Amino acid sequence: MLVVETILKIRRLSRVQGKSIKAICRELGISRKVVRKVLRSDETEFKYERTRQPQPKLGPWRDQLDGMLLANEAKSSRERLTLIRIFEDLRDLGYEGGYDTVRRYARTWAKERGSVTAEAYVPLYYAPGEAYQFDWSHEIVVLNGVTTTVKVAHVRLCHSRMMYVRAYPRETQEMVFDAHDRAFAFLGGACTRGIYDNMKTAVETVFVGKERQYNRRFLQMCSHYLIEPVACTPASGWEKGQVENQVNLVRERFFTPRLRFKS
Questions:
Q1: pLDDT tier for residue 117 given thresholds of 50, 70 and 90
Q2: Into how many domains does the chain fold?
Q3: pLDDT per residue over 195-211, tens digit each?
Q4: Which end of the chain has fewer CB within 10 Å, C or N?
Q5: Are the C-beta atoms of residues 220 and 44 closer than 8 Å to each other?
Q6: Which domain holds residue 247?
Q7: Cα 171 to Cα 119: distance, rounded to the nearest angstrom
């Protein structure tokens, strides 16, 4: 099944970077048929219903396999077992699943173990149309005589510093999508990259470094606008310092003193 993230990559490589189908196949390791299917459609997700759901075998054996992989990693290169040997040892203990399941799990395990922990920095210079920063702020206003907290969406173009601001009652995903749609309409188009913090409406899981598991619907929005999402390192607000400065500026210039509205 094509994952949303792969569809986003295919669309961006073709429509933003202008790469050929052959080049996309080579870079992503997928077939021409898959690439053509994505490019011939405007869909940002393809659904596939299994006639029979697979029965996972690894589940209760994960801890055991983790221990075996960790012990094997600690050995010298000459003493390390091949993955097929580890699989056979796991079978001897009672595991009934297949080798491919163990191989896929071991590959993911090794990738996570080998992730580089060095800090990554977002460049301070941006070309026109290259990137924007997005953030929320909470502001207090008076609506029909009642003190209320509103959620304000902020979009900031990194090159021109042009801003877009809109207030909402909540920070739901629908509000996120609406803010992007209205901002891009106001600004005259979308940039190629969007810089975000790790808000729950966009990021489901934070891994080491810049690796993220993004929300499926959020990735569909990015695919629609051909945006590459970039999530900041936790506790590194300077990576989207422009929009955070905008939050302070708008709060000081617009929401102070406290604004009053009838509705």
A1: very low
A2: 3
A3: 998 899 999 988 777 78
A4: C
A5: yes
A6: 131-261
A7: 29
Residue 241's pLDDT is: 82
Tokens of 30: 């997928």
Are residues 182 and 78 both part of a single domain? no
Residue-by-residue DSSP string for 96-121: -S-HHHHHHHHHHHHHHHT---S---
Q: Tell whether 183 and 103 lie within a shared domain.
A: no
CA distances from 98 to 33, 55, 85, 110, 164 (A): 28, 11, 13, 19, 53
On whether both 70 and 174 belong to a single domain, the answer is no
Check residue 227 and give its pLDDT.
94
Among 206, 183, 177, 185, residue whose Cα is nearest residue 132: 183
26 and 137: one domain? no
Reported as a single tens digit per residue, the pLDDT across 12-54 is 999 999 999 999 998 888 888 889 988 988 777 776 555 444 5
Tell me, yes or no, if the pTM score tops 0.85.
Answer: no
Q: In 3D, which of 55, 114, 108 has the Cα closest to residue 83?
A: 108
pLDDT tops 50 at residue 217: yes
146: nearest Cα among 263, 224, 23:
263
What average pLDDT is seen over the chain? 85
Asked if residues 226 and 16 have their Cβ atoms less than 8 Å apart, the reply is yes
107 shares a domain with 150: no
Instruction: Note whether 46 and 2 are within 8 A (CB).
Output: yes
